[in-house]
From TrEMBL:
The chain crosses the membrane at residues 500-520. GO terms for cellular component: cytoplasmic vesicle membrane; endomembrane system; melanosome; plasma membrane; protein-containing complex; secretory vesicle; vacuole. Keywords: Cytoplasmic vesicle, Disulfide bond, Glycoprotein, Membrane, Notch signaling pathway, Signal, Transmembrane, Transmembrane helix. This is Nicastrin. It holds the Pfam family Nicastrin. Essential subunit of the gamma-secretase complex, an endoprotease complex that catalyzes the intramembrane cleavage of integral membrane proteins such as Notch receptors and APP (amyloid-beta precursor protein). The gamma-secretase complex plays a role in Notch and Wnt signaling cascades and regulation of downstream processes via its role in processing key regulatory proteins, and by regulating cytosolic CTNNB1 levels. GO terms for biological process: Notch receptor processing; Notch signaling pathway; protein processing. Belongs to the nicastrin family. It comes from the Eukaryota.
């Protein structure tokens, strides 16, 4: 959506407030709509919107002002904040979060983006832009975790969900930075293969395109490894219902997180997408990139619970992508036999699509969250990265991935919430969540439990702010201004002639009042009988 980039000299507001817009439409119809073909007569209906932004000029200016305020003021007034959140990552085999992998250990990294964007703040449905991709990766993670031979795979598989990718790859650049600074359990040299899901929800004739980097492939060693990744993908596509094709060998990569990794190290990798060159998504980074844009339709008359369970054609198509990805990851991780039995679950995919695009406040998501996280559920989920973290999308994604790939353990609530004090919990390898669980039959009570998983969070704040290089050309420097409350008022506007007449009368009254004040003050003694000063009187 290229209109998000230029600077407009006038404000633009979206409105989802039903009552104020109803009042405005009533006012508009009553005063502004022409009658019998004639020009509408004054007074006319008008609306005034106010939204004062504190930040100005650029990130460098607003961050400098905020820094000075924080340094010298007791009550600092921050004018802008850097965009930030958390990446969500998990692994097939446990990884010590406080340690470092051996440099010689190789693994497979499967990644996608989480966030989206549009012309309007916090209105980012991102159905094709991000949701379809991370839902397919979630389905692949579940399918691979459930494969009987997965625990015996010689290579580990890491799943990464990057936040802030819309704004110059905040999440992926931070993960690369942390790997280089040894602030992350993995190193760049540990990555033996990289698979990324781009936009995959709008396929044409079940075709997915395998994009590679022509520059890194000029290296003979990387070229051989890329060819191996491509051959494993082709083998995994047999029987999956998908057809894989390659664009021209000279065609550069599409916009992808993989590019941030390639800038640091030549890594063999492939980006899967539904487009050969130009995006098939007409509503990329738009408020119209909704569930309808990727073909999600429900029969009329269905209740929300029935829609949650209804397997749509889109869910089946994305389950095929999840199946392909899970089988390819299994092969790349060293799996010899059993890949054909791996299959993503369409019913899980349809629930994920409903939860992340239609209504997250559904019975399935309610069973996956902690008892104190009810506030993150609601209709019309948005996937903007924001400045307060973790966002609702990140928290939901973390819990969904934990429940899909983790396991229930027989821990009490106290043991689950304090794994460091629980014998055998191994908190350096696992995370624990005390979740609400499903409803107990027809009652309103739930069956809570403890979920153990390898899902973790890592910072998705641009290294530019970590290094205080606010004018960086290497890393993202996007910030968001702080603002006062957005307000609106509706009123009637008089005609130009009436306004000028009112102004003229006001000026005339002012002049007359000044003249009267002068005359009265000059004749005060005569008018009010003020006695002359006859000197001091003694007694």
């Amino acid at each position: 959506s290229h209109i998000s980039i230029p600077t407009f000299q006038f404000p633009v507001f979206p409105s989802s407030l039903t009552i104020p817009m109803f009042i405005h439409s009533q006012c508009f119809r009553a005063h502004n709509v022409p009658r019998s073909g004639s020009v509408p007569e004054f007074p006319l209906c008008a609306m005034q919107l106010q939204a004062h932004m504190h930040a100005a000029a650029s990130t460098v200016s607003c961050m400098r002002r905020s820094s000075l305020q924080s340094t010298f003021s007791i009550n600092p007034e921050i004018v802008c904040d850097p965009l930030m959140d958390f990446n969500v990552w998990s692994s097939l085999h446990p990884i010590n979060s406080s340690g470092r992998l051996d440099p010689g250990q190789r693994l497979v990294l499967a990644a996608t983006r989480v966030d989206s964007h549009s012309f309007f703040w916090n209105v980012a449905p991102g159905a094709e832009g991000s949701v379809g991709s991370f839902v397919a990766l979630l389905a692949a993670a579940q399918a691979l975790q459930a494969a009987p031979a997965s625990p015996r795979l010689p290579r580990n598989v890491v799943f990464a969900f990057f936040q802030g990718e819309t704004f110059d790859y905040i999440g992926s650049s931070r993960m690369v930075f942390d790997m280089e600074q040894e602030k992350f359990p993995l190193r760049l040299e540990n990555i033996g293969a990289f698979l990324e899901l781009g936009q995959v929800s709008l396929r044409n004739d079940s075709v997915l395109w395998m994009h590679t980097d022509p520059i890194s492939r000029q290296n003979e060693s990387v070229e051989l490894q890329v060819q191996d990744v491509l051959s494993q993908l082709r083998a995994a596509s047999l029987g999956s219902g998908l057809s894989l094709q390659e664009p021209s060998s000279s065609q550069p990569l599409p916009p992808s997180s993989f590019q941030r990794f390639l800038r640091a190290r030549k890594i063999p990798g492939v980006v899967l997408s539904d487009h050969q060159a130009a995006f098939r998504n007409r509503y990329f980074q738009s408020i119209y990139d909704t569930a309808e844009n990727i073909g999600i339709r429900y029969p009329e008359g269905m209740s929300p619970e029935e829609q949650l369970e209804f397997v749509t054609d889109t869910a089946r198509a994305l389950a095929e992508v999840g199946t392909l990805l899970a089988r390819a990851l299994f092969r790349l991780a060293g799996g010899a036999e059993g890949a054909d039995g791996i299959r993503a679950d369409p019913s899980t995919v349809t629930k994920l699509l409903y939860g992340f695009l239609i209504n997250s406040n559904n019975s399935w998501f309610q069973s996956l969250i902690k008892p104190d996280q009810k506030g993150i559920l609601g209709p019309f989920p948005q996937h903007y990265v924001a400045v307060s973290s973790p966002t609702n999308t990140t928290q939901l994604l973390q819990l969904v991935l934990a429940n899909l790939t983790g396991a229930r353990v027989n821990f009490s609530r106290e043991e689950c919430q304090n794994p460091g004090k629980t014998p055998g919990a191994q908190p350096e390898l696992y995370e624990y969540w005390w979740v609400q669980g499903p409803l107990d039959g027809n009652s309103s009570s739930r069956i809570p439990g403890c979920v153990r998983s390898r899902v973790r969070l890592s910072p998705a704040l641009s290294p530019a702010f970590e290094l205080r290089r606010w004018d960086s050309r290497e890393y993202s420097t996007w910030t968001e201004s702080r603002w006062k409350d957005i307000r609106a008022r509706i009123f009637l506007v008089a005609s130009r002639e009436l306004e000028l007449l009112t102004l003229a009368l006001g000026v005339l009254v002012l002049l007359l009042s000044l003249l009267c004040t002068f005359l009265i003050n000059s004749k005060a003694a005569l008018l009010f009988g003020i006695p002359n000063d006859s000197g001091a009187a003694g007694y």
